[in-house]
Each structure stands twice: as C-alpha cells, then as structure tokens.
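G., the chain you wanted modeled:
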Amino acid sequence: MALLPLGTLFSAVRIPGHLVIALTGSTEASELDEFLCHALHGGPVICDPHHLRYYALVPASMPRTWSQAVDDWRSLDVDCLGHGSWLGVPRVDAVECTRARATCWSVPMGSAATLCRPLKVARLIAAGRHCMATELEE
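Predicted structure as tokens:
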C-alpha cells in the first residue's frame, strides 16, 4: 500500500458502507463491489474493510467545486477529501480484501487517467440518502 497525498492528481469521496448496503440490500462484498462498479461506471473505488468505508477516486477539484454538497453529506458520514488529506492506495493487484490488507480495490483502476465522475458519485449519495430516509419512515 502507498500513502498518497490528495488534491493534486485526484481527490476521494469517503462513502460509508451502510449507505451502499442501504442501496443494495446486501452485505456481500462481491455484490457491493459489483453495484459500485455499475453505479460509478467503472470508476475506481478503494475499500477499507475494517471500517466498512469506500473511497471513490474523483478529480482533484471536486472538494472545492462541490463544497455545499459536501457540507450536506457530512450528516451521512460522507466526506470529500482533498488538499491536506492522504489516502492509503492498495497495490494494483489487491482486488480481494483479506485480514492482512488494510485496503483493497472494490473497483480496480482501469488506467491512471480514469476517475469516478462527480455527478455519478453525487447521484449515488443522493440515492443512498433517499433509501435510508425511506427505511426510517417505515
């Protein structure tokens, strides 16, 4: 694993696992990974299995351009990490989470230039928020 500074080449949106579970109705890692791959059109996502968090890699400018949305997302434990933050990025072949790995690729990076599209990430978070609100109403 390499610890990389965020906000230059890319930033990351931290998405709590409970949000993805609310969208899928599953706790199976393979189903969550498949869902994220589909929802984010193959954009790279890192999984922290110990804290059940996902990190969608996004353009470096996202924390600045989406600041209002990020403030609204904090109540969901979503955060947009940029300048001043660091992220543990797994080896390219770490596609399966094990006890020995702190992180792994939930959706592997296709190429260095491929990132998640901010609008897709925002839609995923909005859908998760809606699912969680609906669950609370029932």
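The chain is about 35% helix and 20% strand.

Shout if anything looks off.
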